[in-house]
Amino acid sequence: MDYMDLLSSLGVASAHPGGFAATKKLLERVGPPGELRILEVGCGTGKTACYMAKNGYRVTAIEQHPVMLEKARERAEKEGVTGVEWVQGDVHALPFDDEAFDVLLAESVTIFTNIHRSLAEYFRVLKPKGRLFDRELVRYKKIPAAMFQEWTEYLKTDSLLSRDEWLSALRQAGFRCEAPPLENFRSQEYSGDPDEINELDLSKLLDPEIGQGLMRYTQLMFAQESYFRVCEFQACKD
Questions:
Q1: CB proximity list for 220: less than 8 A, separation 6 or greater
Q2: Less crowded by CB within 10 Å, the N or C end of the chain?
Q3: Average pLDDT over every residue of 179-207
Q4: What residues does the Methyltransferase type domain cover (predicted)?
């Protein structure tokens, strides 16, 4: 079982570094809703999209994984949220017109894609002066080859970029972006929000495959956390 299947089976709402507390801080930098049109890529189970909609933002949320998207729609129905446009699709070929959005939000999503292709799509769908907020894991120091292979095979990614490499990719896509601070990465950065814990489908832990997948993920995090930091990239389309 790969990482994304594990998250979708358990119904994890905020798997990105810093959890939902980091999301709330990020949205403070987005600013008040007004007429902003926001695209969230890789919306997962819809926690962030629903939160934004309830706070007055115009939100479109796209997710490739069908189980995640179904959970997002169920969340919206349960919370009485009607202001989100839910879309199933691929960030490498966003099904939106050019210059359609004021803000694009990604939280530990772009790392699981072809980064250069995804950033080019982000740039395309943002309006002039549009802003990208992308919170991602960055490589802090050289990772031993065997460990790197294990990590990339599990996460289905080969793009473990350093902060400078992320900045280079953003600028190559056309964005203006300053170097953000490096934040510490912790293997157990779950927010501890009781609501998020209650949302988890803990019955899935009885499935041996899921239990083994969770154990492998935990082992990888503990073994490799010293090699990573977290950056919140804020980029602008001039």
A1: 150, 151, 154
A2: C
A3: 61
A4: 39-133
